[in-house]
């Protein structure tokens, strides 16, 4: 049975979706970076885009915060470029844990990525690549990934644990955005096969690291 998502998991999901829509997302912003109309209110996260800005408030359904939220909402009436987005934790579920794939299965999947690239199916190779990246991350001992994750969350986990260099993480973030565009209907998207080849090389390195880690 699925459990209720934590605030961090909700923000991970929202951040990825908003970045795919062209927003720059910042969690726990400082008061000095916020506009004056917020009058000391500090949201859980903010998202900026040229045409629109968002303040994100994560709320537990069990909390009786109706009046407080009404007061906060009224602040945003003074600036049409800002919107308040309220997300209730009880309305967001976390998928059940998934199994950890074998090293043999992962190596076979990486070979499939190379085959897809050779056949010119670059976008599909990218999709399979990110599925494989998450599966490998689940095998690495320090990432603590047990449930399905957004691609950006996987990249951040691997980077924070030292498995990815910053330039690699930057490349993967761009590919993750392309992956999201494709799986959500952007079938005409053109992806540079060289970039996906780099993803495949990263996967090959990571699977060897996972295979040599102590059980």
Explain how this protein is built.
InterPro entries: AHJR-like. Pfam families: AHJR-like. This is REase AHJR-like domain-containing protein. By secondary structure, this protein is of the alpha+beta class. Helices cover 49% and strands 13% of the residues. The chain is built from 7 helices and 6 strands; from the N terminus they run βαβββαββααααα. The strands form 2 sheets. It has a 4-stranded mixed beta sheet, covered by helices on one side. Strands 1-6 form a two-stranded antiparallel ribbon.
Provide the fold topology.
Elements: E1 3-4, H1 7-20, E2 24-27, E3 45-49, E4 52-59, H2 66-75, E5 82-88, E6 93-94, H3 103-118, H4 122-139, H5 151-160, H6 166-183, H7 193-212
Parallel strand pairs: 4-5
Antiparallel strand pairs: 1-6, 2-3, 3-4
Protein name: REase AHJR-like domain-containing protein
InterPro entries: AHJR-like (IPR040902)
Domain REase AHJR-like: 2-98
